[in-house]
Amino acid sequence: MGKRDNRVAYINPIAAARARGPVQNSGPTIQDYLSRPRPTWEELKEQLEKKKKGSRALADFEDKMNEKWRKELAKNREKRLGDKERDKKSMDKEDKKDKKEKKKKEKKKSSRHSSSSSSSSSSDSSSSSSSESEDEEEKKSLKKKRKRKKSSARRASDSSEEDSDAESKKRKRIKEERDKDKNEKDRRRKRKAERTYKDSSSESSVESIGEEVLNVSYDF
User: Fold this and answer.
1) pTM summary value
2) Region Disordered: start and end of each range (predicted)?
3) Is 155 within a domain?
4) Full residue range of the structural domain in which residue 219 is found
5) Is residue 213 part of a domain?
6) Total domain count for the chain?
7) Please, how many CA atoms are within 13 Å of residue 192, restricted to the half-sphere of its CB?
């Protein structure tokens, strides 16, 4: 049993393409594009005219719509103006009525004054007394209002003074505490200094005694 021959024949791609010959293009060529059918001048004019007709139709439609809108606006304006005129007429009528009523009231008042002129002397005294009583009441009410304002102001000042007193007391307490702390610290420092001084003096006395004992022993 021999080995199989797995070798493949090598084909030059360039030589194979040359052997096949020129490739036929499936799409249109440049010559086809240049030789395409073109419209004549008359046909082009007809197309332009058709386009213009279409734009004219659209313009006519817009004009019609504008006319409709104008008519609606005119109707609305007429309605609004009619409503305003009605309101004005109604207001004028009301004003005339009010004026007539005022005139009637003035006439009645004048007639009453003329009838009451005879008894004016007696009514003057009563009116003066009533006016005086009203003045007194007004004065009393004003005095009460002033007293209330003064009392409220005093209360506010008292509250502010109390607040200031409380703050001053707090500050005094803080200062006293700080002074106490400083005094205690100074005392501690003095005690430490005294202790160190005593210790140093005791050490120096012990050293002097030891030197004296040594001197005495050498003398013997």
Assistant:
1) 0.22
2) 19-38, 45-220
3) no
4) 174-220
5) yes
6) 1
7) 6
